[in-house]
Design goal:
Blueprint lengths: L3 H9 L4 E4 L4 H14 L4 E7 L5 H14 L3 E5 L6 H5 L4 H20 L2 E3 L12 H8 L5 H4 L4 H11 L24 H16 L6 E5 L2 E5 L5 H6 L1 H10 L4 E4 L26
Parallel strand pairs: 1-2, 1-4, 2-3, 6-7
Antiparallel strand pairs: 5-6
Helix pairs in contact: 1-2, 5-6, 9-11
């Protein structure tokens, strides 16, 4: 069970903090708690902006910062300039987080601040090389240290009245691209456009997995019938993003399922990831 008192105490032990703020439930909870405990003068919420961040997520970060009075900054990251990231092997997330730390480190250094990430205990059970990159560069994970699971984060956020408490899990757009398929600007734009168009149809929780000219749509199991019922609109939305084919995954939305390719056959992975 996550210990909010312990979390506050850990945050208070730092002179200043820079929160990697993606606007998701975890980073939002961490940013709000840090701001509430330390005050705006000791906390900077920093959002990494790059082609792998959907535009609507960036706008959500800005809106939350305004609502909560956060000291908020945008930092540009250049992971697409890194050949190893574009190659999209099993360590893609390592290079992404390394680029994030490149962007956050000067900000933290100027303030003698500690970089904190919204990693929770559930995240430790999946393939997450990005956590290793962040840890190697000196970032810390206060939610892990104070015993928070994803469910704990959502429960505490709801008690605190944070509207992010039930926000669907999100991840960078590159997480929609199977390992071994190069990550390019055009691929990320296709995924973003397809997901935005489907979101406009009312599908709040979804992933569009990129397989060349085929888009594999994942929604929760209880929304499969809705996709079929609106198949013409769904197909039009996906084709409008540049795909030729639209398919529906009958296993439903399974966050992090592309990591299954890294595991021995018959060993499904965690559902806490991308």
């Amino acid at each position: 069970m996550g210990d909010l008192t312990a979390l506050r105490g850990q945050l208070d032990s730092y002179e200043q903090v820079v929160v990697a703020f993606s606007g998701g439930a975890d980073s939002a909870f961490l940013a709000w708690t840090a701001h509430d405990e330390l005050g705006a003068g000791r906390v900077v919420a920093a959002t990494a902006v790059s082609p792998s961040l959907p535009g609507y997520e960036r706008d959500e970060c800005a809106a939350l910062a305004d609502e909560w009075g956060l000291q908020w900054v945008e930092v540009a990251t250049d992971e697409l300039e890194v050949a190893a990231y574009r190659r999209n092997d099993a360590d893609r997330c390592y290079h992404c987080k390394d680029a994030l730390m490149d962007a956050l480190s000067p900000l933290a250094s100027d303030r003698a601040a500690t970089i904190v990430l919204g990693v929770n205990l559930d995240d430790l059970g999946d393939h997450r090389p990005g956590q290793r990159a962040a840890s190697e560069r000196g970032a810390v994970f206060p939610l892990v240290d104070s015993g928070f699971t994803k469910a704990d984060v959502r429960s505490a956020s709801q008690r605190l009245g944070l509207r992010t408490w039930d926000k669907p899990a999100a991840a960078c757009l590159a997480s929609r691209v199977p390992y071994g398929t190069p990550v390019t600007l055009s691929v990320l734009r296709e995924v973003e456009q397809a997901e935005s168009a489907l979101g406009a149809l009312g599908f709040r929780e979804l992933r569009v997995r990129h397989y060349g000219d085929l888009a594999r749509i994942e929604v929760p199991l209880d929304r499969l019938d809705d996709v079929v019922a609106r198949r013409t609109e769904v197909v039009d939305a996906v084709r409008g993003a540049g795909y030729r084919y639209a398919t529906l995954d009958l296993e439903g939305l399974r966050s992090g399922n592309l990591n299954d390719a890294l595991r021995p056959a018959g060993r499904p992975g965690s559902t806490s990831g991308s």
